[in-house]
Write a structure and sequence with these properties.
4 domains; alpha+beta; 18 strands; elongated
């Protein structure tokens, strides 16, 4: 095949210098017909390999017949139906080319975000484990929120992916910004909208803030691509090389890193999120004067062991309230127990698994109650007379004996006339 450099030289010699075809053939050592072909072609030569066909060619008609009836049939099922004898990559490659003809193509428009309109939320699960107790480390979720207009990113680690903890994390991030967007976008996270509808706690949270929660379509991560890209950014730029002594240490390091991350120039908006945040906030909604319903909340009757359980961890309660209904409220920082509006226990929340948290005051109160009960039992046992053979003899009141023998010690003047 003629090289591009030879093709260019042939055209230059013939057209610019007037060298005849025979001389060009002699100088370049190519055939005269090759020189004539180069002069008649207006485009440089291009190598094209002659296709020898692919193994999927013979099976394509049957593949198309199946796709015509079941456009989304999985590749392994198609391979079984058509008797595919080779490895799967050639089949998958051919299906990727022809399947859009049957299922259609779903184009995505470029989205523009107005100030204060939207914030995307998601949970990120960093691979690095965090120490939550002596000898215990866990992979904990991180709630990430990204504002649509300014691309301002904020995040915090939370104890669990339960609804109350997620809502507590959202309130912490929103309160840190000082205002809230008109829409909060979530995927089908179980505690927010796993059934396709916003859960009651999430709806109550959004209603208090006068905003709304919008759920992304199922299996469509591009719907909230801003926060998904930030999750990847955290994975590659924040996490590598870091060690964390506790969840609080993780959040401290993350907060320092976010200051730098929000000061970088974002190419898609040609600006820095920290500079555009003020414009974003001017169009956001103000926060309500009350705290929205957040945290883990439930009610139980306090048992004899005077402990309540929050996320597999047991916390002690004042044993004087055994047998009564108590209300438990757990935030990421504290676990508080109420009885008839009175605080009967407050603990720092443990993010460990299967732990026991005991207040020494509660343990001492329980010990005094047991001692008092034992002393009372001893007094009752001492006040009981016993027969010589050992069985107890009940003590009767003296008036019972008076009535038995007909004795009346009341003077006549006291009797009714």
């Amino acid at each position: 095949m003629l090289k591009v450099e030879d093709w260019a030289e042939i055209r230059r010699l013939h057209r610019a210098e007037g060298v005849p075809i025979k001389e060009i053939s002699r100088r370049l050592g190519v055939a005269r017909n090759t020189v004539r072909a180069a002069l008649s072609s207006d485009r440089p030569p291009k190598y094209e390999r002659v296709s020898r066909g692919q193994v999927a060619d013979a099976f394509e008609p049957r593949m198309r017949a199946l796709l015509n009836e079941w456009p989304r049939m999985p590749a392994p099922v198609i391979a079984e139906r058509i008797g595919w004898p080779y490895s799967m990559p050639p089949l998958r490659k051919r299906l990727a080319l022809i399947r859009p003809e049957y299922v259609g193509i779903d184009p995505v428009d470029r989205v523009t975000y107005e100030p204060g309109q939207i914030a995307q939320c998601d949970l990120w699960f960093p691979e690095t484990k965090v120490r939550v107790a002596p000898g215990q480390e866990r992979v904990l979720p991180v709630l990430v929120m990204t504002l649509g207009f300014s691309r301002f990113m904020t995040a915090t680690m939370i104890p669990t992916r339960q609804g109350g903890d997620i809502l507590s994390g959202m309130w912490s991030l929103i309160h840190g910004i000082g205002r809230v967007t008109r829409t909060l976008v979530w995927d089908r996270e179980a505690a927010i909208g796993g059934t396709g509808r916003v859960t009651a706690p999430a709806a109550a949270f959004a209603g208090t803030l006068a905003t709304k929660i919008k759920l992304a379509p199922p299996r469509d991560p591009e719907y909230k691509g801003l926060v998904e890209r930030n999750n990847q950014y955290l994975e590659t730029s924040f996490l590598p090389g870091r060690q964390f002594a506790s969840p609080a240490d993780f959040n401290d390091q993350l907060g320092q890193w976010l200051l730098r991350a929000n000061a970088r120039t974002v190419r898609s908006i040609q600006g820095r999120p920290v500079d555009l945040l003020e414009t974003d906030c001017l169009s956001m909604l103000p926060l309500p004067p009350v705290t929205p319903p957040i945290g883990l909340n439930h009610r139980i009757r306090l048992g004899r062991d005077y402990y309540i359980r929050v996320d597999t961890v047991d916390y002690s309660v004042d044993p004087q309230f055994i047998g009564r209904f108590v209300d438990i409220t757990a935030s990421p920082e504290t676990v508080t127990t109420f009885c008839d509006g009175q605080v009967v226990a407050r603990h720092v929340r443990s993010w460990a698994k299967h732990g026991v948290v005991t207040d020494p005051i509660h343990a001492a109160t329980a010990a005094r109650m047991r001692e008092a009960l034992a002393l009372d039992r001893q007094k009752r046992a001492a006040a009981t007379r016993r027969h010589p053979d050992g069985h107890a003899v009940a003590l009767r009141a003296l008036p019972d004996y008076d009535a038995l023998f007909g004795v009346d010690f009341n003077p006549p003047s006291t009797k009714a006339k």
